[in-house]
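TICKET: design request
STATUS: open
ATTACHED STRUCTURE:
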């Protein structure tokens, strides 16, 4: 077709993997993928809808897109598109909205790129999104996000993801291994496993056929990949067997990101989470017993309905005592068609903000303590291609962010270094790099 398309992603690693897959569909159809500001003929915007802020971001991206290319055809996909297609269709300049069951068929719907006054909405009920569509990100040689699971069968009272993505479903292990080998041949050095609820891996056609442990054991034998990193995994699905296997693995790195959401059992109950804080503490203790230098990230929500100051302090003190490395803090926001939105005990916005600030400060304290405990140790760093103020950055296997003076020869290479000190911006300084870059 000789047309140009620009891709923009809001949200999680899973969205990035799916945007990249849709981008390859565009390339196969003859489109040229260009930068956002390069007057494309089509904008593809993949949306998130975890918070109301994500919805506002979508509107802003559409507005900015049309500043750069006023005649561009604008297509919206993703969770926001499945949940609120009518709301998106009212955004000036949006031409097409595709739901979860339609987004991977985008090329067949783009028969005419002429903008009209009426937005085309193709959005079936989420139950129709019952097939697993393999996806992985492409273009960043250092790290690839590989989708292994989609959807969720959980019923957390604050979450819209099951409404946006449907039931839990997974790819086959053989297909994932083939994708991993393809990723390895592309030159990518690290794979990050992504999904909505990856610990629930193994369900196909509503029948459990495999376990997450089966997948990680199989991936560990794929040659050509230096590192495999597990993204967010529910504590009740993170088994001792998985923890122990990662501890002795050739490729899986000592880094877990485990959602907590609240350190109060009362609030966990209101959220309908499938564990209590005692289990969470047990998971952290088990990990540290197997991998003392393991990095552990934590998701936590503040301001959930019914959360008193005492409940919040329960959470704060619980996390403060845990041997974890950093926090991702989310301020609760009401989402339509969720049980939590109808609950009593709404927390004032100012209190939500104060609690968020306290946990952000705690997160920095935790991260600095974790980084400090790594100083003096030798680690392998995989360097990325970014440059800022003359420095480039990379990550150790256990997710310590380091910096070194920019050297193009280090991009996508691993280097054996010693961690020396924490610099002002929080990154770790390393001693002069070893003389030889380690081989692939």
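STATUS: resolved
RESOLUTION: sequence designed for all positions
ATTACHED SEQUENCE:
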């Amino acid at each position: 077709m000789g047309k140009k398309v620009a891709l923009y992603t809001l949200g999680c690693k899973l969205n990035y993997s799916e945007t990249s897959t849709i981008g390859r569909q565009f390339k196969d159809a003859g489109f040229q993928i260009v930068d956002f500001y390069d007057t494309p003929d089509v904008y593809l915007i993949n949306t998130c809808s975890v918070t109301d802020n994500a919805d506002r971001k979508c509107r802003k991206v559409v507005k900015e897109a049309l500043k750069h290319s006023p005649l561009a055809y604008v297509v919206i996909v993703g969770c926001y598109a499945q949940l609120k297609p009518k709301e998106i269709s009212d955004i000036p300049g949006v031409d097409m909205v595709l739901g979860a069951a339609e987004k991977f068929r985008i090329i067949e719907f783009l028969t005419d790129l002429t903008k009209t006054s009426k937005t085309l909405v193709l959005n079936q009920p989420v139950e129709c999104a019952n097939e697993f569509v393999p996806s992985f990100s492409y273009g960043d040689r250092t790290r690839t996000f590989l989708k292994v699971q989609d959807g969720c069968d959980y019923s957390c009272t604050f979450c819209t993801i099951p409404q946006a993505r449907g039931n839990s479903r997974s790819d086959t292990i053989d297909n994932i291994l083939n994708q991993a080998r393809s990723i390895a041949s592309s030159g990518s050095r690290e794979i990050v496993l992504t999904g909505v609820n990856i610990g629930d891996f193994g369900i196909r056609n509503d029948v459990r056929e495999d376990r997450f442990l089966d997948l990680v054991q199989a991936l560990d034998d794929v040659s050509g990949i230096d590192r495999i990193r597990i993204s967010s995994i529910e504590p009740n699905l993170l088994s001792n067997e998985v923890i122990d296997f990662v501890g002795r693995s050739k490729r899986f790195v000592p880094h877990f990101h485990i959602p907590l959401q609240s350190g109060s059992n009362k609030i966990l109950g209101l959220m309908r989470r499938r564990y209590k804080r005692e289990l969470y503490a047990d998971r952290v203790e088990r990990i540290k017993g197997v991998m003392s230098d393991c990095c552990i990230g934590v998701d936590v929500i503040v301001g959930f309905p019914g959360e008193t100051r005492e409940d919040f302090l329960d959470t704060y003190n619980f996390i403060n005592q845990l041997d974890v490395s950093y926090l991702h803090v989310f301020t609760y926001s009401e989402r339509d068609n969720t049980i939590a939105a109808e609950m009593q005990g709404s927390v004032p916005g100012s209190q939500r903000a104060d609690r968020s600030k306290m946990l952000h400060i705690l997160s920095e304290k935790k991260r600095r303590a974790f980084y400090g405990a790594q100083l003096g140790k030798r680690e392998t760093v995989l360097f990325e291609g970014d440059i800022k103020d003359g420095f480039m950055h990379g990550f150790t296997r256990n997710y310590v962010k380091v910096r070194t003076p920019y050297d193009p020869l280090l991009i996508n290479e691993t280097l054996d270094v010693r961690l020396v000190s924490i610099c002002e911006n929080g990154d770790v300084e390393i001693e002069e790099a070893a003389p030889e870059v380690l081989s692939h």
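CLOSING REMARK: Residues 349-374 form the longest helix (26 residues). The chain is about 30% helix and 20% strand.
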